[in-house]
Amino acid sequence: MNERESEHTLEYLLAFDGREHHYPEGYFLRFDIKRVDPTPERPHGLRYSFTLHGPSGTRLIGFDNAHPVAPIGGRYKAKPATADHWHRTETDPGRPYRFKNAEQLIDDFFDEVERVLKERGVELVVIDTTETKTP
Q1: How many CB atoms lie within 10 A of CB 105?
Q2: Global pTM?
Q3: Structure confidence by residue, pLDDT tens digits, 69-123
Q4: Domain assignment of residue 113, given as a range
Q5: Coil, helix or strand for 61?
Q6: 135 exposure class (CB count in 10 Å sphere: 0-12, 13-18, 19+)
Q7: How far apart are CA 26 and CA 124, in angstroms?
Q8: Ramachandran region of residue 44, left (φ > 0), alpha (ψ -120 to 50) or beta?
Q9: Phi and psi (nearest 5°) for 85?
Q10: How many structural domains are present in the chain?
Q11: Pairing mode, if any, of strands 19-22 and 28-35?
């Protein structure tokens, strides 16, 4: 992907900020993404949280960079330099995620959404979209 395509993908993704996608049986996705000044924890200049919620509102999976997480495999492994991580289940405290670009992030998120919804027998169709951010 060239730089122009990458920027177009990022702008497309930024437009999802504050959006919720609703699926059958009360499941929904929530998107929060903003540009920020690059830091060692967020070198790509994004603050994001993409989550899938169950009918009761419980987060089932999520990709975010709100805080750093410990590496998998023990306390003696080096901590990741960035805060990018994902939660594979509702009880997963988070595992490091290697951020490549905005397109890969959204692809990885939707792959996990599809996995969880299929496991639960939920149809993979968005039945409503709402905006939660205020102008």
Answers
A1: 24
A2: 0.89
A3: 877 766 666 677 789 999 999 999 899 999 998 889 999 999 999 999 999 999 9
A4: 3-131
A5: strand
A6: exposed
A7: 12
A8: alpha
A9: -160, 175
A10: 1
A11: antiparallel
